Amino acid sequence: MQFLPKTIPEIQPEIQPVNESPPELVTFDVGGMKCAGCAKAVERQLMQYSGVISACVNLAVEVATVECQPGAVDAEALAKKLTDNGFPSQSRLGENQREAEAATIERRRQEIRQQIKQLTIALILIILSGLGHVLGTKAPILSNIWFHWGLATLALLLPGRPIIVDGCRSLWRNAPNMNTLVALGAVTAYTASNAALLFPRMGWECFFDEPVMLLGFILLGKTLEQQARRRAASALQALIALQPAKARLVDFKLPSLDWRSEELPLNSTSEVYNPQYIEIPADRVRVGEWLQVLPGEKIPVDGEICEGKTTIDESMLTGESLPVLKQPGDTVAAGTINKSGAVVMRATRTGKETTVAQMVALVQAAQTRKAPIQNLADTVAGYFVYGVMAISVLTFLFWYFAGTHIWPSVLLGHGAMDMGHGAMNMGNELPIIHYQSPLLLSLKLAIAVLVIACPCALGLATPTAILVGSGIGAERGLLIRGGDVLERVHQLDTVVFDKTGTLTTGNLTLTDYLPIFQNSEWDLNSDINVGNRQDACSTIDGVSGRVDSKLLQLAAAVERGACHPIAAAILLEAQQQGLPLLAAEDFCTEPGLGVSALVEGRRVFAGNAEWMKEQGVAVATELSGSLQGKTAVYVASEGVLLGVIGLKDTLRPDAKATVERLRGMGLRVMMLTGDTPSAAAATAQQLGLAAADVLAGVRPEGKARAIALLQAQGCKVAVVGDGINDAPALAQADVGIGLHCGTDVAVETAQIVLMRNALMDVVESIELGRATFNKIRQNLFWAFGYNTLGIPVAAGILLPATGILLSPAAAGAFMAFSSVSVVTNSLFLRRGFRA
């Protein structure tokens, strides 16, 4: 099978002006939001502030992210503006993440406690109201109309007061919300019942039970919704809780320090003066300081083990349950747990630079970014309450002036869905009413329309699904940057892998070794016939003893200036052969081609065949053929080829299974590499990739053009790479998937970061993205469908044919159920991703 590198057409990129100062991001905790209409109102207020470029508000986590011009926005002033407009806000700028999150969690707990208190009162009132109908004449006091008037009045003044006050304020600020609809419905029902009570000659019925039951159902729904939202956010809170509070600072140079000791002073007052260690807040640790970590303690910051050996539980960061062995020289991440031995480590990253802090930042950013599919819901939510109030008025006018005259039978009796309890009169009994006035029936239907409409379901549809999905990803070491990424993941049809370090382990080994010169001295003046030297090619394994060549020394000296798996393999081989490194200077790297340096006063080049041609060095075709399926590194100086080194990489253990799984999901799998066609062919053959799915010999800038070409053909492309040489392609792709290397989690060009560095996680991240996006679509379908069907039913569309009348209390119950159902459906996402 012959693999040839494909020619990638030049695509001239559009020249964009360079922004000297990137936009500044400011995050706010925003309270007082009750529905999607509130979130839209907050966004409008933020966008009106001078210097704000864009604003994104997340109803589920009550967070607003503002992108603004650097130095143009006073965060505190902006927070005060929101607070003055009824949305208590606080900027997170400059705050300790742990403290800010703790304050937010405590605030939400207080809100839930307050809601439970109000719900308890409302339920007691509902029980008393229900007993009056159940017992009837057996309990004259409970069935007395004035008793029910008192229950309704208490319901409005106690549990219903915050809802009514907030609803009225929102209407006054020209930003009506869900509470506005509920307040209008409850107050109207209460007022109409009072009119019936005070003017019995009108023949109206009293329905004081309606505001009592309405407010009770609304509070029950809000409480369940808040609890479900807390569960949805639990993964992020657990991630934040990983960040240690304390660190044990030690002086590693003190001879008295015994880092193996697990016995520490118990007297806290003497710890400060103990010469061996001192406890300080973890966020005060500086890079380069030495820290002692005992068994069972959390690693305080990112660092490197200096003394001791232990196993580390990295499950919360990577999802890997088995502890990982750590020895001197190995890296450790903040928040992971030391399981077995006492160690001394040196801090390399602190504060917001640690792995767990960056993970928290990525997950929080993901939860505030919307999916484009949510735009329709947001647009509708902005005008939703106004529309519902207009429909309510039209419902009243229709039934009062036309409906009751066209279908007079609707005034007789109650429908099956009428949850009212009949009329109440001035006596002790609650007689069954067989006739309703047109005015009262029209009013009931108008109230039901106000109450059944639910903007909350629209506002919670996307953010709750993203909240749960990003939380599941964080638990499994999959960091997905937001709802827009999830939507693009759902649209993918092509996955393009980098080869070296992605499909392969990246741990290259020397397999072939061909020095063109056999004399021990570096003689560049000899007359060399490359074509006659093929017999000198041999494998490393076939050479007895050490490889005696200046070629390896030269290659190692030059590659010392590069950061690439090839350079690491050559340096390792030189070290294993015991060859001293030659002095080199003036290093120059050409990405995708090779590296050069001055060695012993002469410019030496090490790279691929294309690099050699650019330097005017001839490479015989027979020489390339002898290294079929391997990576060839040519070494030359002053236009003369000194030799060639062959290297081979090995596939990741899960590479083939990953490719097969992706194909099983209906995705096209391709390989894009800067390696030679023969090396790419060898890897592709092991993976079962066809020649048409392999692009070889592509330089880093050419990779972005290759992806752009695929996109121009209509493909939705994901690129999987290590985030370094593949950065242009990752940025160009519809979805960039970066494999996490070391402790650098912030692969800025990737939209998905795989913490475990396991290739099979590509499959899991795409499956999670698809499942989360499907939940978003289900939630939006339910939210739109509920309102599309519920509002007409509440308006009485079924009343003439079936006699079904939806009372305000029943409408309130359905509205509460709609919000809870959306959040609960999002939580069901966990069922498909259980460990």
Low-confidence stretches: 1-19, 254-275, 414-434, 524-548, 742-746
Strand-pairing-aware structural class:
alpha+beta
Give me the count of strands.
27
The proportion of residues in beta strands is 15-25%
Q: What is the spatial order of strands in the main beta sheet?
A: 14-27-26-25-15-23-24
Largest sheet: 7 strands, mixed
**C-alpha Rg, in Å?**
35 Å
Number of separate helices = 28
Identify the overall geometry. Answer: elongated
Classify the oligomer: single chain
Output mean pLDDT. 78
Helix amount, in percent? 40-55%
Distance between the termini: 41 Å
Question: Secondary-structure map with pairings?
Answer:
Elements: E1 24-30, H1 36-47, E2 52-58, E3 63-68, H2 75-84, E4 89-91, H3 97-135, H4 140-143, H5 145-157, H6 161-172, H7 178-198, H8 209-232, H9 234-241, E5 246-250, H10 268-271, E6 277-281, E7 290-293, E8 302-307, E9 310-313, H11 315-318, E10 324-326, E11 331-332, E12 337-338, E13 343-349, H12 355-368, H13 374-406, H14 438-452, H15 455-475, E14 478-480, H16 483-491, E15 494-498, H17 499-503, E16 509-515, E17 538-539, H18 550-559, H19 565-576, E18 584-590, E19 594-599, E20 602-607, H20 609-614, H21 621-625, E21 631-637, E22 640-648, H22 655-664, E23 668-672, H23 677-687, E24 694-695, H24 700-712, E25 717-721, H25 727-732, E26 735-739, E27 752-754, H26 760-794, H27 799-802, H28 808-827
Parallel strand pairs: 15-23, 15-25, 23-24, 25-26, 26-27
Antiparallel strand pairs: 1-3, 1-4, 2-3, 5-6, 5-7, 7-13, 8-11, 8-13, 9-10, 9-12, 14-27, 16-17, 16-22, 18-19, 19-20, 20-21, 21-22
